[in-house]
């Protein structure tokens, strides 16, 4: 099986999406195709398994959801491109660290298309432009398969990041694509990133698909 299904999901509530990822991962077998999901979430803070409550400074009216991915606290909201990677890593002969490096490389290549010079950091997963973070990573591996993934700030309200210590780092400055490349938009960034991930993961076949029935909801 060397095919990947790419889903463009629009704006989806966080918790039903998380539950659908868990269900796909739990039920899949050796014949199940890998999937890449690209979407946006309504405003939400998510606290990873290593998360500490003191890094959520003043959430206000934004809910905080404790989740099963790695990492600390981050923010999701409209205008941020989220990518979830449901991959059978054993089938791709890839370990978690290699997957993290591959995602970071795909993000760096995508940003370079708009003239943005970005790079990962060895000590802090994610992608940075100088001292400012532009993309966060958080994965979970279960039964040799990955879920959760990446969040790339594209064209969003950045204020909620000031309500937390992003990824557990006090004073971490965040940035976004449109502040560095005003001509970019979330749809073109999504397509560029999807192409880069498919290429770097080495799939020989991919298809676009609609929203799974268990994720159908009214537009947000």
Structural notes for this entry:
The chain is α/β, with parallel strands linked by helices and 220 residues long. 24% of the residues lie in helices and 32% in strands. It contains four helices and eleven strands, in the order βαβββββαββββααβ. It has helices at residues 14-27, 96-113, 177-180, 186-201, and strands at 3-11, 34-40, 44-47, 64-66, 73-76, 80-88, 119-121, 124-129, 132-142, 145-153, 205-209. The strands form two sheets. Strands 7-8-9-10-6-2-1-11 form an eight-stranded mixed sheet, sandwiched between helices. Strands 4-3-5 form a three-stranded mixed sheet, with no helix packed on it. Strand 1 (3-11), helix 1 (14-27) and strand 2 (34-40) form a beta-alpha-beta unit. Helix 2 (96-113) crosses helix 4 (186-201). The longest helix is centred in the middle third of the chain and has 18 residues, at 96-113. The protein starts with a strand and ends in an 11-residue tail after the last strand. The mean pLDDT is 91.
Query: What overall geometry do the principal axes of the alpha carbons give?
Result: globular
Cross-sheet strand order for the largest sheet: 7-8-9-10-6-2-1-11
* Class derived from helix and strand content: alpha/beta
Uncertain spans: none
Report the helical percentage. 10-25%
Q: Averaged pLDDT, please? A: 91
> CA-to-CA gap between the ends?
35 Å
H-E order: EHEEEEEHEEEEHHE
Please state roughly what percent of the residues sit in beta strands, choosing from under 5%, 5-15%, 15-25%, 25-35%, 35-45% or over 45%. 25-35%
Tell me the number of helical segments per DSSP (H or I, 4 or more residues long). 4
Give the radius of gyration: 16 Å
Largest sheet: 8 strands, mixed
| Tally of DSSP β-strands | 11
């Amino acid at each position: 099986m060397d095919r990947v299904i790419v889903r463009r999901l629009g704006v989806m509530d966080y918790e039903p999406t998380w539950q659908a990822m868990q269900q796909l991962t739990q039920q899949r077998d050796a014949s199940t195709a890998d999937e890449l999901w690209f979407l946006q979430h309504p405003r939400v803070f998510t606290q990873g398994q290593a998360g500490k409550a003191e890094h959520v400074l003043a959430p206000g009216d934004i809910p905080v959801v404790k989740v099963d991915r790695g990492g600390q606290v981050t923010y999701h909201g409209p205008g941020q491109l989220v990518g979830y990677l449901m991959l059978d890593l054993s089938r791709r002969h890839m370990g978690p660290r290699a997957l993290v490096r591959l995602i970071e490389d795909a993000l760096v290549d995508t940003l370079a298309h708009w003239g943005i010079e970005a790079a990962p950091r060895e000590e802090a997963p994610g992608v940075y432009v100088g001292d400012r973070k532009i993309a966060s990573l958080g994965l979970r591996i279960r039964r040799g398969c990955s879920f959760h993934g990446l969040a790339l700030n594209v064209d969003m309200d950045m204020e909620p990041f000031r309500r937390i210590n992003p990824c557990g780092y006090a004073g971490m400055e965040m940035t976004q694509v449109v502040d560095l490349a005003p001509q970019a938009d979330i749809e073109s960034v999504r397509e560029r990133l999807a192409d880069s991930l498919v290429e770097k993961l080495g799939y020989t076949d991919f298809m676009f698909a609609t929203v799974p029935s268990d994720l159908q909801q009214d537009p947000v």
